[in-house]
């Protein structure tokens, strides 16, 4: 078990275990789902938005803390010094903290349901959490079968954006009349979030194989994984460009293309280092930068 000291290395390990940049995955779907509502219905409720944002951050904290707990049970994290379970040596403490985050996060969503007298948002978010659990928790552990990316697409894309949209509008009317902006925006965010998860597998092939985890990179190999990353990234921006040129999205959405250099940096980096675990290990954080900047700009573009 790793001993906890107060050296700079230990500080870095704690930072890597807590993963502050990863919390942007909670912010962006709420931001973009709300932006679609603002663009279509000219509605914005700050109390609902800020409550939803805090609840989403707590749900991501649950997801990450419980991931370390469940992974400690399969042995997949035995070489991972920046696992919170390895750092503290106290699995039940981390599990209790995870459950506290989930309860507080869901309490925020329940508050929205009570204020609005409507359980639609709560139902969608409970669905997201159940799918998040099925990714990593027993007896499902669907991530071990390579199903993480489709789950990630569905939950962080259409489901989370629909929940954020509905929390502002309390109606599906606008979406039913003009579904294209929602479909394009939610696919964009679904793909960019799945790219983060996809990139997190490149440097872990050996540990994943040893623990019986059939991640997409274990299944495809790193070279084909790098090629698939190019296609997924290209598709994301191509769909956006088509929706803008066909007049479904405002030209302001072109602002999103300011994040294209990060997409190019990510694809080049992975193409060059896909089979060098040490060098490719930071690609997940390039993917986080791409997801954050593109999502931020997409939300701004939609509301202008
Ligand atoms: C915990 C996740 C990935 C870590 O996976 P892995 O074990 O391979 O990595 P480590 O090496 O770091 O251990 C993310 C998994 C995401 C999951 C497929 C879907 C989660 C859905 C969320 C609950 C949705 C929340 C929506 C929110 C905005 C309200
Ligand atoms: O620790 C990780 O690798 C991830 C954590 C996380 O919360 C997340 C959320 C959405 C997509 C990917 C990821 C991770 O890869």
UniProtKB/TrEMBL annotation:
Domain of life, per lineage: Bacteria
Pathway per the UniProt entry: Cofactor biosynthesis; phylloquinone biosynthesis
InterPro entries listed in its UniProt record: DHNA_phytyltransferase_MenA (IPR011937), UbiA_prenyltransferase (IPR000537), UBIAD1 (IPR026046)
Keyword match Metal-binding: no
Transmembrane segments: 20-39, 46-65, 93-112, 119-135, 147-167, 179-198, 235-264, 285-303
Catalytic activity: 2-carboxy-1,4-naphthoquinone + phytyl diphosphate + H(+) = demethylphylloquinone + CO2 + diphosphate
EC number assigned by the record: 2.5.1.130
Membrane protein topology class: Multi-pass membrane protein
GO molecular function, one term: transferase activity
Keywords (A to Z) from UniProt: Cell inner membrane, Cell membrane, Membrane, Transferase, Transmembrane, Transmembrane helix
Keyword Lyase carried by entry: no
Subcellular location(s) of the protein: Cell inner membrane; Membrane
NCBIfam families with a match to the protein in the record: menA_cyano-plnt
The protein's role, per its UniProt record: Involved in the synthesis of phylloquinone (vitamin K1). Catalyzes the transfer of a prenyl chain to 2-carboxy-1,4-naphthoquinone.
Family to which the UniProt record says this protein belongs: Belongs to the MenA family. Type 2 subfamily.
Name of the protein described by the UniProt record: 2-carboxy-1,4-naphthoquinone phytyltransferase
Organism: Phormidium yuhuli AB48
């Amino acid at each position: 078990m790793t001993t906890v000291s107060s050296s700079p290395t230990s500080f870095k390990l704690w930072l890597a275990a807590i993963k502050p940049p990863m919390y942007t995955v909670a912010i962006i779907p709420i931001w973009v789902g709300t932006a679609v509502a603002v663009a279509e219905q000219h509605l914005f409720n700050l109390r609902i938005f800020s409550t939803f944002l805090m609840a989403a951050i707590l749900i991501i904290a649950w997801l990450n803390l419980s991931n370390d707990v469940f992974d400690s049970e399969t042995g997949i994290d035995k070489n991972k010094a920046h696992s919170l379970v390895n750092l503290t040596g106290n699995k039940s403490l981390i599990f209790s903290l995870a459950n506290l985050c989930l309860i507080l996060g869901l309490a925020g969503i329940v508050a929205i349901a009570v204020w609005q007298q409507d359980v639609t948002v709560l139902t969608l978010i409970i669905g997201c959490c159940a799918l998040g659990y099925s990714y990593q928790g027993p007896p499902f552990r669907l991530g071990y079968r390579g199903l993480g990316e489709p789950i990630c697409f569905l939950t962080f894309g259409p489901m989370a954006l629909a929940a954020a949209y509905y929390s502002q509008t309390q109606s599906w009317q606008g979406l039913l009349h003009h579904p294209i902006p929602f479909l394009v925006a939610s696919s964009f965010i679904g793909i960019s979030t799945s790219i983060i998860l996809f990139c997190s597998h490149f440097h872990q092939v050996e540990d994943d194989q040893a623990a019986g985890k059939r991640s997409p990179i274990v299944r495809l190999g790193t070279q084909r994984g790098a090629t698939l990353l190019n296609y997924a990234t290209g598709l994301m921006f191509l769909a956006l460009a088509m929706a803008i040129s066909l007049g479904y999205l405002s030209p302001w959405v072109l602002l999103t293309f300011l994040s294209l250099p990060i997409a190019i940096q990510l694809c080049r980096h992975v193409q060059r280092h896909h089979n060098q675990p040490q060098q490719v290990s930071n690609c997940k954080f390039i993917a986080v930068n791409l997801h954050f900047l593109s999502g931020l700009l997409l939300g701004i573009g939609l509301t202008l």
